[in-house]
Amino acid sequence: MKPAFVIGVAGGTGSGKTTVAEGICDRVGQDNVVLIQHDSYYKDRNHLLAEERDKINFDHPEAFDSQLLLEHLNLLRRRKSVAKPIYDFCQHVRCDESEIIQSRDLIVLEGILILADPAIRDLLDLKIYISADDDTRFIRRLKRDVKERGRSFESVILQYEETVKSMHLDFVEPTKKYADIILSGSGSINMGIQVI
Question: Rounded distance, CA 141 to CA 98, Å?
C-alpha cells in the first residue's frame, strides 16, 4: 500500500498554522485526513512539581518528545494507528489518557518547530511555513491561551517576554528556509491566505 502523504504546517505561535491546517483538512474531507498538533507531543513532565513545570521553556526544541512523534509519523505513514498523547496546557502535564488516531491518505502535522528537527522534516512530503508579524502573533496567542487553554493574561505575557519571542527568533524563524511554500498569515484570522 502507498504511504500516506504528509504535509507540515510550521510558523510562529499565532501565525495562523491551525487555520491553514484545518482549512486543508476541510478541503480534502475529514474522512481522508488526520491532523496532528506538535503541541500534543510535549515531553511528559508529570514527575515535576507544578512550580518546576511553570519554569520550563515550552518554545525550545528540547521541550518536545521528538522520538515519540517520529515513531507515530512513521506508523501513520505506513497506514498504522497510533495512541496520540493528550496534553493538559493548564497543568503542563501529559494526561494518562491518549487518543487513538487512525491513518488516512493525508496526514497534516502542524507546529512551531516541526521544521527545526531534520528527522521530522525528512518525513514531510510538503513543507508550508506561515509568516506573520510579531504583534499579530502575540495578540492571537494571548486570546487563544486565555480562552482555550485556561491561562491568565499575566502568565501568557510573562511567557512571551521571557521565552516565546527569543525562541521564535532563534529556532522558529530560521526554519522558513526549509519550506516549500511560504504563506502570509497576517491580517484577519479568517483571512484568505496569500502566497508570498
Answer: 25
Which pLDDT band, with edges at 50, 70 and 90, does 128 fall under?
Answer: very high
Report how far apart the first and last C-alpha atoms of the chain are (Å, whole number): 36
Q: In this predicted structure, which of 79-83, 131-135, 149-153 has the lowest mean pLDDT?
A: 149-153
Q: CB-based burial of residue 186 (10 Å sphere; 0-12 exposed, 13-18 middle, 19+ buried)?
A: middle
The span from the CA of 176 to the CA of 99, in Å, is: 31
Cβ–Cβ under 8 Å, residues 8 and 125? no
Confidence check: pLDDT of 135 > 50: yes
Neighbouring C-alpha atoms within 13 Å toward the C-beta of 64:
21
Give me the DSSP letters along 63-89: GB-HHHHHHHHHHHHTT--EEEEEEET
Where do the domains of the chain lie, and which CATH numbers do they carry?
5-195 (3.40.50.300)
C-alpha distance from residue 110 to each of 19, 35, 185 (Å): 10, 8, 14
Whether 10 and 129 have beta carbons less than 8 Å apart is answered as yes
Distances (CA, A) of 81 to 13, 100, 104: 28, 7, 9
How far CA 139 is from CA of 52, 78, 100, 161, in Å, comes to 27, 39, 33, 13
Residue 142, CB-side half-sphere exposure with 13 Å CA sphere: 12
- The model's pTM is 0.86
